[in-house]
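hi! just following up on the protien thing from before. the input was this:
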Amino acid sequence: MLRRSLEIMAASCPLFALLFVPVALAMPHLFPWVALPSSLSGHDLQLLAHKQPYLNVPFFLGRALLYFAVWGSVGVLLFRWSVRQDAEPGITERAVRITLYQRRLASGALPLMVLCLSFASLDWLMSLEPLWQSTVYALTVGCGAVVGALSTVALTAALARGAGQFGALMGPAHFLRLGTLLLGFICLWAYCGFSQFLLMWIASLPEEVTWYRARLDGGWLAVAVALAVGHFGVPFFLLLLRRVKQHAGALAAVGAWLLLMRALDVYWLVWPALSPGTATFHWTSATAWAGVGDGRWPRGCCSRAVATRYQ
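and the predicted 3d structure came back as:
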């Protein structure tokens, strides 16, 4: 039932590869391991030298190209096959064959997609502070990404309720399952994030606690509390209510709220690394988010979110 919305989102991955070009051009200003600061101690320089075979510009850009190639090719193929299947006059032999192709590609590519997402989170987020590391970081970021994807689906499903669109075919039972899945990944995101914090708080190692000090001092504690309440507490209790999960508008409101929390979470992860010290919000951060979609991308998903023929 949710195939077409997810296919449209996956097929848009090649467009987002263009947004990586400014990141590639600004690497010396974003990632300390590109041009090592002179203020680093001998131990820190030795540690970064040990990571140099992985953290170097050519390999970094090559991995990014691989990530976008995997995400884009899988997304575009699934979407194209789905459109071709819709063009068939009925349940023909070709339509059945396309379904088999989709199932094989989706199941076979899933482990590769997870690996690409995990390594992308390490490359693009964790390496902003290359002296810090966490084994659960990629899982936390991945769970947050799934929360964002499911929230977008919930929002588009409520908006795409026109004739022939997939949202019009969804009943309370479908929204209930979608809300339950969203609740599960919210809990998993919170569990991973809290486990990481608890383990590092117990160990209290200087090379580990500095990451949290940068995100709890200087006003960032208020952002962390807002995430704990807004990204977990509020949606958790709302999604425990069956009537909220079954109602398209209510679930869409929760999804829209979670998308705002996802933006805040990414900001909390990235900005203290780029601008240590007092918590600030620069106007370019808002315009950057607006420039990515400008509100047109969700509406575009809705306008193209026609239900598949076999739905």
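Residues 1-130 form one domain.
Residues 166 and 307 are 4 Å apart (CA to CA).
cheers
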